[in-house]
Specification:
Strands 2-4-3-5-6 form a five-stranded mixed β-barrel. A three-stranded antiparallel beta sheet has the order 8-7-9, with no helix packed on it. It contains no helices and nine strands. The protein is mostly beta strands.
């Protein structure tokens, strides 16, 4: 199921595991329509969960495009590119991106968005 709000587009996924925090980045899970916390900072982001999942198997809305709050792993400034910072799904400034980044480099972070505020 998908919903559109003034801020963005949300899709419903099933939490593969417990996700204790809302507003963290998730990746695709193992099975169809599942999401999970990232395994590495270089994983491909799916979006940002809008609600926590206290147990595995719960439905969670994932903001796949648009504007959302995020949980910061550290300080960043307005205008910074943001990416997965840790296996918690928190975000921080992109550190592994360079001018040759083509979206397919396995060792580079993949930007999730742009910080609108610090």
């Amino acid at each position: 199921m998908a919903t559109f709000s003034q801020e963005g587009f949300d899709m419903t996924f099933i939490a593969e595991n417990v996700m204790a925090e809302a507003f963290v980045v998730v990746e695709l899970g193992t099975s169809e329509m599942q999401c999970d916390l990232p395994d590495a900072t270089t994983d491909t982001p799916l979006g940002v969960i809008q609600a926590a999942a206290a147990t595995a198997g719960l439905s969670v809305p994932v903001r796949v495009s648009g504007v959302t709050k995020v949980v910061a792993n550290g300080a960043f400034s307005k205008g910074d590119q943001l990416a997965i910072a840790a296996t918690t799904g928190r975000v921080d400034t992109v550190s592994g991106l360079d001018s040759s980044f083509d979206g397919g480099t396995a060792t580079a972070q993949k930007p999730i968005g742009l910080a609108l505020t610090a």
